[in-house]
């Protein structure tokens, strides 16, 4: 039998049980046993103490919360498709490009010397390529990209894996503008029908490059921009009459258009092409083709004429917008593409250069219409990151 040591608390409770106060406890709790009454009293006291502590803790928490701000959550690191492609890319797969850069601060001239490209391969890695390189200088002005100087194009080296050009390019640019410039070097595989394939591209941020002394670099090319499937194709032709200073634009047809459902909610949707003449990035004239009820492969066969002075040929471009309209609905642009000497996309520049090299006497009959140059152009998706 376990002995019960008489502590002061135990002695007090035993005395209370033998005294008249014990009788009062049993009467208050309506029990016959004094020990049970004492147990109930202790339980109630402990419960009151716990309730008091919880109340004080709750009040302190409410008073403290306004003074303590919400802990900031750690933001997730962003990830882009370009980063995934760079991780998965096989470095050196697209060849290397050797070039030199030199800047003359007194004459404010940037000199680029393209030496050679090595380990160039075709898409199927089976045969050599007909390689050439293009050089462009772009200045970032806010959200816009402004082209500086000319876009240089080298000679085509036939059936080579190692292409040597030794081409020099010069750009007039101040030291302040040089910090905002990006040099774009693009190596392409020439095709006789105009479907040149991009082998690789190199972007050089001149703002992070020390050009106090001549710099010679051998850099690995990365994969060029993808061949966009876009939202369809547009067949157009261009011809320029130097005597009349007039450019004729032939819009024949569009093919395989991908039209979003919300663009054709109205009744009797119609498709047409809007052509804008841009000089220095500003619209100076525009015209529309006739409307077609065919939504997938609309046929237009229209000729549009614009007055364009010869001195503006280097700054001019044409913007083709394929649009959808319906009765009672606003116009919706399906897609657009630019063709001109100052466009970023290479096939737009090539189409313009071919037009300038052809005289009005050299005509090609395409779709029952005389044109200077005919070409089918893929229309990029308007939501794409690449802007023409």
Automatic annotation (TrEMBL):
Residues 93-219 form the C2 domain. GO terms for biological process: calcium ion-regulated exocytosis of neurotransmitter; synaptic vesicle endocytosis. InterPro entries: C2_dom (IPR000008), C2_domain_sf (IPR035892). PROSITE patterns: C2 (PS50004). The chain crosses the membrane at residues 36-63. Keywords: Membrane, Transmembrane, Transmembrane helix. GO terms for molecular function: calcium ion binding; calcium-dependent phospholipid binding; clathrin binding; phosphatidylserine binding; SNARE binding. It comes from the Eukaryota. GO terms for cellular component: axon; dense core granule; plasma membrane; synaptic vesicle membrane. It holds the Pfam family C2. This is C2 domain-containing protein. It comes from Calicophoron daubneyi.
